[in-house]
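Hey all, quick one. A colleague (J.T.) asked me to put the FVH job into the tracker so the inputs and the structure tokens live in one place instead of scattered across chat threads. No bug as far as I know, just bookkeeping. Sequence used:
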Amino acid sequence: MTQNIVDPASKTPVTLLGLGAMGTALARAWLAAGHPLTVWNRTPARAEPLAARGTGVAATAAEAVAANRLLVVCLLDDASVDEALDGIDLAGKDLVNLTTSTPGRARARAEWARDRGARYLDGGIMAVPPMIGTPAAGPYVFYSGSRELFEEHRDTLAVPAGTTYVGADAGFAALHDVALLSAMYGMFAGVAHAFALVRKESVAPADLAPLLTSWIGAMAGSAARTAEQLESGDYTQGVVSNLAMQVAGTSTLLRTAEEQGVSAELLTPYLALMERRLAEGGGAEDLTGVIDLLRR
Ligand code: FVH
């Protein structure tokens, strides 16, 4: 049997603040790849399993920050980042913040870090903890902010998940992250409604699941057509199923929900927007016009 010999001296040391579900997965990935790791968590007990595997456990966030130049933060929210880093000297640090945030707050955080003498990279994680350190599962992180920081630490950042740099504007990682998450919740809403429709019948959820998976997969390809229409400004370009036809079919969706004793509350906001666009004369278009109705 061959053994992987990892020389820790050749690996960039990492400080990680936050050992929740995601932070712990990140820590394990860097440890497994041989990176010297220093961790801090508000609740010290969460660091114990890592300490047993040779991780440096700092007693305070300030001590962890002082240990290494590369500092990765993965905490619950912006407020916890404020609290954890309050009053800590960040001069000369490379701060990578993987805490989910808004574009505006990420930009403010970049300025905040700059004012404290640190380079800043914001990250939006497109993975759940079990995917981390498992390239076959396709985890990746959107990064934006300091390109120099990203390039310098690209290999280290690529250990837990793939890296996708989306621009120098520190808000762009959060923007991409939240755009994808928002699409995901729309998909979850549709799936919830579909399961609710069959709930009272003799249709096994396990039989519906693969049908949903393949149908959603087939329909997901429409995003490319939507992008083309948005870019050309012609929402009738390449239209397959026009809005007028689709709106005519919505009453069937609503009546079926009623017959099955299911609330249509997850569907009606979207159907109302389709009707509005039709009333404005968009009958020959695709569904792309709905996007314009959302802009305030
Ligand atoms: N888990 C997931 O599925 C998603 C996947 C996509 C990315 N998110 C984001 O990652 C951030 C961390 O998420 P997490 O899964 O690690 O979250 P928790 O398991 O709830 O752990 C939260 C950690 O934050 C610490 N913490 C909370 N408040 C404070 C505070 N005021 N000061 C210092 N630390 C704080 C908490 O510490 P403790 O409760 O153990 O003491 C945990 O370390 C997040 O932005 C997701 O949106 C995850």
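Adding what we noticed when we looked at it: The radius of gyration is 24 Å. The chain has two domains: 10-169, 176-294.
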